[in-house]
Amino acid sequence: MSYDLHIVRLSDKSERTESPISEAQWKEAIRADGELQSDSVASATSPNSGAVIQVRSPLMASWLDPQTKLKHYFRYSRGRISVKNPPESVIVKMRLLAAKLGAKVQGDEGEFY
Q1: Are 8 and 17 in contact (CB under 8 A)?
Q2: How far apart (Å, rounded) are the C-alpha atoms in residues 75 and 56?
Q3: Running DSSP on this structure, what letter comes out for residue 34?
Q4: Of 34, 22, 32, which Cα lies nearest the Cα of 79?
Q5: Helix count (H) and strand count (E) of the chain?
Q6: Interacting residues of 39 by C-beta distance below 8 A, sequence separation 6+
Q7: I need a surface site. Which of 11, 24, 30, 82 has the fewest CB within 10 A?
Q8: pLDDT 10s per residue in the chain (113 long)?
């Protein structure tokens, strides 16, 4: 089962209303970060069939975790940035990005990181 975390900008103190991150703000965050790379295609090989699975998104970025040397994908959609099943090192990266975007990291069930 997958569980996504999202970088979201909230517009009120109740932390229930989102103020979307714009595409331009996301592109600027990628450019300014120095570790993120624009990466419009994510590829993985199925361990069962060996088939290559690809996901395409023009506003996706990848980050190579310096500790594990694994690539993680940050997907932009509808004013938020999401990562599927992030390990702790990615959560730390998400929190750094969120701070630069005036946002927070929130899980699928509404909890904050």
Answers
A1: no
A2: 10
A3: S
A4: 22
A5: 2, 8
A6: 60, 61, 62, 73
A7: 24
A8: 789 999 999 876 666 677 899 999 999 999 999 999 999 999 889 889 999 999 999 999 999 999 999 999 999 999 999 999 999 999 999 999 999 999 999 999 999 99
- The span from the CA of 3 to the CA of 88, in Å, is 13
Nearest to 71 by CA among 107, 102, 99, 35: 35
Helices (H), 11-79: 23-33
Judge contact between 96 and 113, C-beta under 8 A. no
Question: pTM for the whole thing?
Answer: 0.88
Spatial distance between the Cα atoms of 60 and 55, rounded to a whole number of angstroms: 10
- Longest pairwise C-alpha distance within the chain: 48
What pLDDT is stored for residue 2 in this prediction?
A: 86
Token pair in block for residue 109: 């069930």
pLDDT at 13: 65
**H or E segment to which residue 92 belongs:** helix 88-100
